[in-house]
Amino acid sequence: MSAFAIAAASPSSAARASGALILEAFADLRADFEELLFLGRSAGSVLEQASVELEAVRSLLHAPTRELLAGQLQASRRRTEAVEDHLLSLRALAESGPRTQALLDRLAAEKASVADLLRTEQALTAALVGAADWQSPSFLHSTLPAAGRQNGRIRAHWNDYKRDRHLDAEAYEAKYLAAMVDGPPGLRALLTSCGMAAFTTVLSFLLMERRLERPVLAGAGMYHETRLLLERALPERVHVVDERDTGAVLRAIDELRPSAIFLDSLSNTKWMPVPELARLVERLQGTDVYLIVDNTGLSVSCQPFALAGGSVQLIVFESLLKYAQLGLDRANAGVIVARSDDVELLSDYREHLGTNVADVAVHALPRPDRRVLERRLARLQRNALHLATRLREQAGASVAIVYPGLDSHRSALAAPRLAYRGGCLSIVIKESDADLSRERALVEEAVAEAARRGAALVGGSSFGFNTTRIYLTAARAGHGDPFVRVAAGTEHRIELETLAETLIAAVRKVSS
Predict the structure, then answer these.
(1) Residue 79 and residue 173: Cα distance in Å, rounded?
(2) CATH number, domain at 436?
(3) Domain that residue 46 falls in
(4) Cβ–Cβ contacts within 10 Å for residue 309, how many?
């Protein structure tokens, strides 16, 4: 069965502590400890590699610096090994310990504690790995170099200024491409300082290389910040299309002969439209029309280059602050994937725009691993679908619940074909006030209700975390329609029941 197999959980919460739910909750926690082990081992491998690299330049470092780094690396590796041993014990308990509520609660608390510890260690590891390095590393020296671990690998006018490019990003880009991207040969990845930096780099490339001389199509569900920039850059040329109506988009392509089409693979807006990328890619084969896809909402589950082959002008970008960090939320980063000929120019624009990723941010990213990420996405999807199903059936008629996994979703053709349908859902208040007072009240009441029930819920932006979040999105946007977004976390099955009841109670209270 696919990791993304989707099925609605039972809407009934009467059997919260039933044997079946407890077994499922223990299985969830075992998988959680596996993921945390991956994060710990990922950090451990980075520390080990840093130790090897620093040993190679040991004689080129000042003695106090050398002693400080050696001691800190050793201490960090000891801590990481201790966390790994602890996680192995916790995983064993989740697998074969007594199936009691007391043990379940203990393991859930340990999961939260260890996840927070690893998140903190990730920041320390990132700083430590590059502590001896320089942002402007030397390529020649008379006495001692100023290049840290990378001495001997710095080339003048190429990687001697990290705002332009650097070895840490290049190493991650190669790993990301190999692990996360399906498609023809000749693709390359470029890291940027965030997802928006990825978009501004792509947009600047297309504008300055005069690739947007004809009309431009933009999906109505584009992320509001990217749509705002696009419409301000090309106020006379942008034509907004409803990406849910594939026929209308295809007709617009035929009638307008656009130079580019901008779409989100899964929209981060109120109604969460989903375009039929396969049909659009088929129509664009052999044309000079650029297709720009923001893949943040679907991440590794959507592979546009596998659809496109080599005959579509395709550029894909993603924010790596969301799903790729496995809940760490540790560093801003984004990635662009494109064909090699486009990447050469994109790399130049990244350099001149100053949108390259920082070296410390690269060290803070977990190593790319598709299997680990897909398993996490499957959990987020399960939890989002369960919350959406329960809310639709029990929250009342005053709200509409939007999630691509529901049969009521408006992208009736594209959404059911997705392996992964996202980790977020929208709560749309049907009779909203102009000042959004009911939406704001819902966010506050949901967190207060969670506190009363002893459930973890966070009021905050973004998505892809371990703990579910609730947020009023686009509240100050020049573009975009504000709505309450629930970003599902990785809660185990019984925690999920409590969370669903929390949200239902909050909606009912606010709507009454």
Answers:
(1) 28
(2) 3.90.1150.10
(3) 19-129
(4) 12
- Report residue 435's pLDDT band, with 50, 70 and 90 as the boundaries: confident
Same structural domain for residues 357 and 437? no
- Answer whether residue 247 is part of any domain: yes
**pTM for the complete prediction?**
0.95
Cα–Cα distance list, 308 to 23, 201, 262, 273, 284 (Å): 42, 22, 15, 21, 9
Clarify whether residues 333 and 387 are in a common domain.
no
How far apart, in whole angstroms, are the C-alpha atoms of residue 318 and residue 294? 6
Strand partners, 190: 336
Locate 78 and state its tokens.
């000891």
Phi, psi of 40 (to 5 degrees): -65, -45
User: By percentage, how much of the chain surpasses pLDDT 90?
Assistant: 90
Task: Tell me the CATH number at 167.
Answer: 3.40.640.10
Name which of 427, 417, 443 is nearest 506 in CA terms: 443
DSSP run (H or E) holding 483 = strand 483-487
The number of distinct structural domains making up the chain is: 3
Amino acid at residue number 104:
L
| Contacts of residue 86, Cβ cutoff 8 Å, sequence gap at least 6 | 114
Residue 68 lies in a domain: yes
Phi, psi of 481 (to 5 degrees): -110, 115
Neighbours of 253 (CB within 10 A): 19
Tens of pLDDT along 233-282?
A: 999 999 999 999 999 999 999 999 999 999 999 999 999 999 999 999 99
